[in-house]
Recover the amino acids of this structure.
């Protein structure tokens, strides 16, 4: 087996995009994006998608290839990404995968977990509670039933929370207990590179990125989407907070502070997820690229 995927992971705003481009240029190869927030073409500023200059610096796949009106699940991405990898491996022995969505990275490199079927009435009941009582109660129940999932999934995403609860309630076992079971082998090897930094520095970089997004026109981007806020793709950090501002519920300063806070929480969950993989090769975010390239080359 001489085909490799170099997966670059880490918290938001840590520098994954720039590293992926440098590695792609060094190995003369292409980049698969596994960032679920960057799939949608209507969401550019708030997802910190690669700039036009970055996209031109190396061939990218799965950036702005879908519309927010389309249902696109992790299962769809697994199928599409594996198909694209098979195609690209015909002319490349090494491909780069980059993204902060741990579930999507794992779906491609390891395979999705297999969950038992449960009574559909459980999902209906959870959806009823979500609609009439809100997300907070479901979050608290998940925390009690499955604290591991509470710490690692996108806890502000209603679909992820109801799915984890559905499995936990329907099987009597935590959702997390079904994760990381043996799966079908992949026709490639994965080398995972993790970028990290002291938590205070990660948070500082996140705050700076949010400020840049606001200056770049995030409020205007969200304003153009305000009549579509019910779509699942828009129930994400950076958009849902500004919907509150546009509704008059929050002032702009508070909405921006909430974006920063929720982005920091998201980064914490990302690190928790990625730290579970003992094979990840971790580097400080400002490690010289040559050192990372030398380490990767020694693994190939």
């Amino acid at each position: 087996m001489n085909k490799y995927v170099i997966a670059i992971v880490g918290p938001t705003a840590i520098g994954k995009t720039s590293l992926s481009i440098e590695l792609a240029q060094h190995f003369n190869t292409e980049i698969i994006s596994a960032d679920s927030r960057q799939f949608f073409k209507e969401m550019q500023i708030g997802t910190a998608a690669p700039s036009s200059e970055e996209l031109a610096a190396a061939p990218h796949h799965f950036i702005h290839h879908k519309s927010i009106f389309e249902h696109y699940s992790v299962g769809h991405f697994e199928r599409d990404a594996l198909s694209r990898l098979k195609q690209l491996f015909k002319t490349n022995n090494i491909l780069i995968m980059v993204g902060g969505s741990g579930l999507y990275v794992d779906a491609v490199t390891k395979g999705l977990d297999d969950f038992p079927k449960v009574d559909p009435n459980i999902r209906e009941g959870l959806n009823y509670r979500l609609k009439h009582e809100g997300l907070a109660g479901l979050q608290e129940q998940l925390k009690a039933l499955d604290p591991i999932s509470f710490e690692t999934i996108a806890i502000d995403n209603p679909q992820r929370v109801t799915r984890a609860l559905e499995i936990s309630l329907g099987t009597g076992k935590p959702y997390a207990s079904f994760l990381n079971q043996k799966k079908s082998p992949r026709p490639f090897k994965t080398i995972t590179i993790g970028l990290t930094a002291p938590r205070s520095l990660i948070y500082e970089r996140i705050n700076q990125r949010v400020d840049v997004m606001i200056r770049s026109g995030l409020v205007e981007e969200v304003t153009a989407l305000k009549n579509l806020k019910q779509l699942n793709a828009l129930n994400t950090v950076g958009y849902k907070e500004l919907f509150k501002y546009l509704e008059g519920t929050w002032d702009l300063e508070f909405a921006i502070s909430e974006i920063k806070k929720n982005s920091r929480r998201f980064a914490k969950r990302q690190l928790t997820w990625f730290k579970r993989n003992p094979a990840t090769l971790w580097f400080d975010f400002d490690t010289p690229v040559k050192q990372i390239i030398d380490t990767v080359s020694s693994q190939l």
